[in-house]
């Protein structure tokens, strides 16, 4: 198994574990608010958290590497936000309506008003989460965290690394495909590195890193 695949599987495992923990907490709080007692909220929430975190986590970690996933990721920000929010929100709403954990444990189903609240909350929370996730992918998770916490409200001295990548024959290649084609070539090279050399004729890459 490749190192990258192993790393992504470990990440998926952490996502599933966190999802089960959050599901248990949400289920307990929801049952306490509705019935005044925890009842079976913890195991039901854990089951729902497992189902949702495993499917959504797989789509986000592995699905984005497929051709349809790349199309969604490379779409305009608003399109990506709406598509992901609709897909993930629908999955969460489906679980809240069908309640597989409740049926599996043979517990009486919740009232319709409670399900409606869960569905509305699911879509709102999903779009908020996807918004923050997409922003973090654009500017970086650590940079987003520092910006939210106000780290950059005042000038700071920090150490940064800058990586410069040069492809042999890139000047002639840029003149051949034009300024509009260069960004597309860069995207294609990062997505399909195994076909990069046969399609462009480039032979090697030279890299250098500078510390500031």
List keywords for this structure.
single chain, 212 residues, two-stranded antiparallel sheet, 2 strands
Please provide a written account of the structure:
- The protein is mainly alpha-helical.
- It folds into 2 domains: 3-148, no CATH class; 161-211, no CATH class.
- 71% of the residues lie in helices and 7% in strands.
- The protein contains 9 helices and 2 strands.
- It has helices at 3-35, 41-61, 67-73, 77-98, 100-104, 112-139, 141-148, 170-191, 196-200; strands at residues 161-167, 205-211.
- A two-stranded antiparallel ribbon has the order 1-2.
- The protein is elongated.
- The two termini are 36 Å apart.
What is shown here, in short?
This protein has about 210 residues and is mainly alpha-helical. The chain folds into 2 domains: about 5-150, no CATH class; about 160-210, no CATH class.
| Main sheet summary | 2 strands, antiparallel
- What structural class do you assign from the helix and strand content? mainly alpha
Shape: elongated
What is the overall number of helices? 9
List the helices and strands and how they pair.
Blueprint: H1 3-35, H2 41-61, H3 67-73, H4 77-98, H5 100-104, H6 112-139, H7 141-148, E1 161-167, H8 170-191, H9 196-200, E2 205-211
Antiparallel strand pairs: 1-2
Helix pairs in contact: 1-2, 2-4, 4-6, 6-7
């Amino acid at each position: 198994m490749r190192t990258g695949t192993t790393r992504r599987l470990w990440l998926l495992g952490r996502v599933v574990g966190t999802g089960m923990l959050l599901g248990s907490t949400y289920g307990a709080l929801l049952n306490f608010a509705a019935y005044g007692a925890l009842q079976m909220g913890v195991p039901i929430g854990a089951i729902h958290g497992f189902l949702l975190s495993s499917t959504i986590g797989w789509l986000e970690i592995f699905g984005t590497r497929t051709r349809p996933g790349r199309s969604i990721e490379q779409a305009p920000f608003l399109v990506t936000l709406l598509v992901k929010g609709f897909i993930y929100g629908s999955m969460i709403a489906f679980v809240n309506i069908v309640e597989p954990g409740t049926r599996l444990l043979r517990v009486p189903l919740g009232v319709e008003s409670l399900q409606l609240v869960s569905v509305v909350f699911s879509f709102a929370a999903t779009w908020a989460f996807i918004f923050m996730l997409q922003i973090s992918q654009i500017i970086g998770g650590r940079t987003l965290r520092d910006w939210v916490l106000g780290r950059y409200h005042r000038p700071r001295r920090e150490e940064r690394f800058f990586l410069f990548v040069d492809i042999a024959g890139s000047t002639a290649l840029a003149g051949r495909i034009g300024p509009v084609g260069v960004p597309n070539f860069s995207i294609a090279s990062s997505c399909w590195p195994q076909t990069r050399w046969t399609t462009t004729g480039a032979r090697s890459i030279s890299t250098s890193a500078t510390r500031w």
